[in-house]
Specification:
Length: 234
Amino acid sequence: MSLQDGRFIFVSYANKDFHFVHAEIERLQSHGYQVWYDQERLEPARFWDEEIRKAITACACFMVFITEDSVASRHVCEEIEQALSESKPFIGVYWDNVELPGGLQEVVRKRQTLDRYSMHQSAYEGPLTKALSEYIRTPLTPCTTEKPVIVPPPRPGPDILPKVVVLALIAAALISLFLAVLFVVSPPFISKSPAELEANHEIALILGSMFVAIGLGLSGTAFVVFRMYLRTKQ
């Protein structure tokens, strides 16, 4: 990235905060923004302070992460002072509930600031994007040579299986009860004599009772499965 294009964000921070600042830098870069920060952009054999001053002068927006460590950093305060003196578009992100030293606090608070320490990540990202869009209206789209990823159609969710099991158990219970009624009302046996007819009725009652027991058991199982499914959804 060349300093001459000016379409980049200068990020000021304390070195001790690099662990979370770098994550924020990567998130901004993933959205297409060009970001200048001293861990990556300084050219070899160049004096750091000179490179930093030039980058602040050339940037489209100055962004500083304000924490307990950054307010104690002379370098961060000097970078803030330069950005303010050059009237650079300014965004202050208060990662901690702290105050800047000297007269910087009052001046910075008059600029665009975000109290990140009191905001959820999703509530913070929206206002930050809106603030950046005032200074960098068209973020560059990151170049990629990777093949497009084909997303397969969504598969049924894991909660469908319990529903299918419950419906299958209910269907099996209804079939069992239907067979029980069929055996009792009209025994499907050929009877050639009154004795055979009586025996067939007894067999039909036994089979009908068996199918009633099976139907009730399946119904109870369906109820238990459904209750367990409801508990997992709570």
